[in-house]
Write a structure and sequence with these properties.
The protein is built from three helices and nine strands, in the order αααβββββββββ. The chain is an alpha+beta fold. It folds into two domains: 45 residues, no CATH class; 83 residues, Jelly Rolls (Sandwich), CATH 2.60.120. The strands form three sheets. A four-stranded antiparallel β-sheet has the order 4-9-6-7, with no helix packed on it. The chain has a three-stranded antiparallel β-sheet with strand order 1-2-3, with no helix packed on it. Pfam families: Cupin_2, HTH_3.
């Protein structure tokens, strides 16, 4: 697949994709989802392993196994202040993924939609979670579960 083909399938410019490929730019979660959809892979199948900003390559999914805390995959998206930790395995054919997203105070993710379901659980801090046009104040122990095709977004409070 050429960059032009990928560009047409994920609605991202050829120059932007080229910058990502060369390590000159990074991508957002919506851009990463679009790339995954165009490549017909799930987000955990496209683990971003980094030796520095923008350095990324495809990693093989892990076989089914117990994942120890010191062997979990991490993704840091350099254009956001989110660190993702994958808790679920990466075996082929899985139906869902479990991860922890650690977000910096004040981080804002505008409402977006994507395929699948989404479940969230607040470990600590405060989050204003919006589903459609309806905002919800969430704190430790609160959770949400929705069809991700419904626009949803969040804003992290001033504390972690």
């Amino acid at each position: 697949m050429t960059l032009r083909d990928l560009s047409q399938q994920c609605s991202l410019s050829v120059s932007f994709l080229s910058q990502i490929e060369r390590g000159l730019s990074s991508f957002s979660i919506p851009s990463l989802r679009a790339i995954c959809q165009a490549l017909n892979v799930s987000l955990p199948d496209l683990l971003v392993l980094s030796d520095g900003p923008g350095m990324a390559f495809l990693a093989d999914p892990r076989p089914p196994e117990i994942t120890k805390g010191d062997n979990q995959s991490y993704i840091n998206l350099s254009d956001t202040s989110i660190k993702y930790r994958f808790l679920s395995g990466g075996f082929p054919g899985r139906q869902f993924e479990v991860l922890i997203g650690e977000m910096s105070p004040g981080y804002h993710n505008p409402p977006t939609s994507h395929e699948g379901e989404e479940f969230g659980f607040v470990l600590e801090g405060r989050v204003k979670f919006t589903i459609g046009e309806e905002p919800y104040a969430l704190g430790p122990g609160d959770s949400y579960h929705l069809m991700a095709t419904t626009p949803h977004g969040y804003e992290v409070g001033d504390e972690k």
